[in-house]
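ERR on first pass: missing label on line 2. Operator R.T. fixed the label and resubmitted. Corrected input:
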Amino acid sequence: MNTKTFALKGTICFSASPQELSIAEDSWLVCENGRCAGVFPTLPEKYQGIPCRDTGSCLIIPGLTDLHLHAPQYSFRSTGMDLELLDWLNTYTFPEESRYADLSYAKKAYRIFADDLKKSATTRASVFATLHVEATELLMDLLEQTGVKTLVGKVNMDRNGSPVLQEASAGESIAETERWLTEISGKYRNTAPILTPRFTPSCSDELMRKLSEIQKRTGLPVQSHLSENPGEIAWVQKLCPTTHFYGEAYDQFGLFGGQNCPTIMAHCVYSTDQEIALIKERGVYIAHCPQSNTNLASGIAPAKRYLQEGLNIGLGSDIAGGTSISILRAIADAIQASKLHWRLTDESRQPLSLEEGFYLATAGGGSFFGKVGSFREGFEFDAVILDDSSLPCPRTFTPRERLERLIYLGDERNIAGKYVEGSRIF
Amino acid sequence: MNTKTFALKGTICFSASPQELSIAEDSWLVCENGRCAGVFPTLPEKYQGIPCRDTGSCLIIPGLTDLHLHAPQYSFRSTGMDLELLDWLNTYTFPEESRYADLSYAKKAYRIFADDLKKSATTRASVFATLHVEATELLMDLLEQTGVKTLVGKVNMDRNGSPVLQEASAGESIAETERWLTEISGKYRNTAPILTPRFTPSCSDELMRKLSEIQKRTGLPVQSHLSENPGEIAWVQKLCPTTHFYGEAYDQFGLFGGQNCPTIMAHCVYSTDQEIALIKERGVYIAHCPQSNTNLASGIAPAKRYLQEGLNIGLGSDIAGGTSISILRAIADAIQASKLHWRLTDESRQPLSLEEGFYLATAGGGSFFGKVGSFREGFEFDAVILDDSSLPCPRTFTPRERLERLIYLGDERNIAGKYVEGSRIF
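pass 2 clean. output:
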């Protein structure tokens, strides 16, 4: 047996369904060749003798997935929180991202980001870089070393940027993308490319068409933004007057899901019924980013509806619209946002339960990466060990209550261990 | 010169007005006999030779005030987040508070609470205990030792409680209150009593009348809850059919502010124009508790309106409706909630700015305790030293941006020092 076969012992918790937690106290979670072999009350005969890490009373949960974040924005997170999306991009974000032309700046910044991502409960992430090829490759080098499985996108943007942050033409953007894909080809085990048109206002039709050609040729996944802010949506409608809703601005170029084009769209705060129907039909993943939607005063996405209607949905930190890289925190944020959505917008949708929030962060988003986010047999072994002993209390709690406390109160200090596809990160 | 005369050196930041920060880099903040003597670019001649603590590049801000929290609920914070107010009280809160009849439980629980309050950025707090006199006195003993200045209320509740948490009659509730006030009389320097009718549904008319008599005799301040949740408000209207709005249920007994009855009312999410007018007329302090209002799906209080209309308003953690004891976090929560309020409820009110959120947490709430919450001359010297060196970043920030980062990202690890009325806590 190789080093990817072992057991963890503790209180094991994962989503049996979006509405139900499976909790096994004082049990064994077996990893066999990097895949989950199951949860057992006692270690089965056939696994006797494999290495075992006894976590004592710790909780063991599936690794969390961050479906949407901007690595270069980690450097200025939690500042400049006073503007809406479009002004925020022009005032704070584009100037900051332009700094990544300077590799020494990128190195300092991305090292901090990669270190913090490694310490977090995140085991899978889909990441925006900047338009700069060298800095994007540097980011991928650093992420590769973390052991976290990531998709990373060199950003495409050939219009409506700023003098310091825009590619000169669709041709240049595509040439740089091809160069990037060639330079990283075969280079990494833990990180892989994802095509990343920033959002419709940043990408000319020609750029979208050519990106779609690359997508069809390579089968690469796609990530972008969708229906985040009313001002943005109105602008897209002007830019694409023939479309009936924002999602069509991607779909008209074949960059909106479907079997051969796995796609993540961040936000979906204001998706219309038609747009929601197409998202569902194409299997597009929604990256629900509640903290960002609050900080940029975008609004509250109807996450409960998406879940109830069977759409693919997970959570995103959306650094730096969001300030915290913690997907535990994003669970709490999602539940809290859904409560205000119920109260202020739509009393017919109950708020997200703890179970549902946890599901979004694990199996919900994880499935974009394959069989990820669960401890059912055959799933890739992504696991996080949560230690709540630093959260003192005078009473005992059930495992579910302990999970709830960790979601609301926990931070990186409570993350005692992490495994990705059977490899121990720490 | 005594030990309460000294200087702190660092980047000094306080509210010049609700809309404006005063920031002095590399400056001296002088404490003279426990009062603030001013902020100086160089140490004035007359203070040469006084002890000085050089905080390097740390930020120094006024101590924060928590206008509303329930100490006994700290033990179960971050669990049971799935119910609205009234069900939450009956299901989780009343059973937990009943445990404080057991002094050994109270000791364990309150020690944890007092330790965490001490480590926080809070220098003043108004605290609900339980109805139990002995446990309330124990809490006051422990809070006394923290050095934080607190008001603590033995809770009054003689109706609609639970079999395990209710006083048998108004007479018993009053007798216990009198016993408590007698037993603690003259005992403490840092903690003091505040009359605490839980909320109208918990207090009979007779109890309110008799509490008012105590209030008039002693001049003690009062704290309670107001207009938090639609179900609660409808219930109060049934219980008090002659009142025109919830606030009148207190006001009819003389327990709603005015010159001789300093009063804090928590929440005010749904205060009517009439209620708001009376709050203003009587100088009642609003404890704005955004995290709690979100967690209990109560809604969003119009904090911006209260501030613009000149009402007295500060922030409350409202443990355990709120999960975090951090008033830095409460600033972020208040700003975030105000953004959603703007977007979803009232686009005529701009969200709270960073400056306004900071003001609420310092001078806004602090003024309930006297000249507290500012570094202007003559103010009681409450100061917190914030160290952001553990929040790495590749670039430099302005002092305002550093403050913003600490508000969104900081926790107790970033609190490097604390002073209350000139006494060093750590």
